[in-house]
Backbone:
């Protein structure tokens, strides 16, 4: 019985970190859709645009990879939130890197539902998320 009680002692911290992670995820969603010139929600929900869905989900996965690493390696909730913001900035830079350096026509191609453009954007977002996650470990 003591083992169960000891295990549940961390439930409060779990709830705080999880709630903070969800807030950071919502902030990321808000910032990311404002950063991209195309409206992912409209493209996915109304037009069933697969390229937009792939690119957007890749960005979310990339962000969550870094966020998970921040949660695992942070020394406090404030530390976690700070590194969550760093992860958000890294994901924003990943989109800008693809848009302005690798595929300047990415927005038009995603609007046209070119799946290959969504895959490139998702791949870059996940790669940046993995690198960010690895760099957060200290």
Residues:
């Amino acid at each position: 019985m003591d083992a169960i009680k000891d295990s549940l002692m961390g439930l409060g911290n779990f709830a705080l970190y999880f709630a903070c992670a969800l807030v950071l995820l919502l902030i990321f969603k808000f910032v990311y859709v404002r950063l991209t010139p195309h409206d992912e929600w409209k493209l996915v929900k109304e037009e069933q645009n697969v390229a937009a869905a792939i690119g957007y989900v890749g960005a979310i996965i990339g962000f969550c990879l870094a966020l998970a690493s921040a949660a695992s390696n942070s020394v406090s909730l404030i530390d976690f939130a700070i590194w969550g913001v760093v992860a958000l900035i890294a994901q924003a830079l990943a989109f800008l890197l693809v848009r302005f350096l690798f595929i300047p026509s990415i927005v038009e191609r995603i609007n046209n539902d070119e799946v290959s453009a969504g895959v490139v954007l998702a791949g870059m977002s996940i790669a940046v998320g993995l690198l960010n996650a690895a760099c957060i470990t200290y």
Remarks:
- The chain has one domain: 2-136.
- The two ends are 35 Å apart (CA to CA).
- Residues 2-136 form one domain.
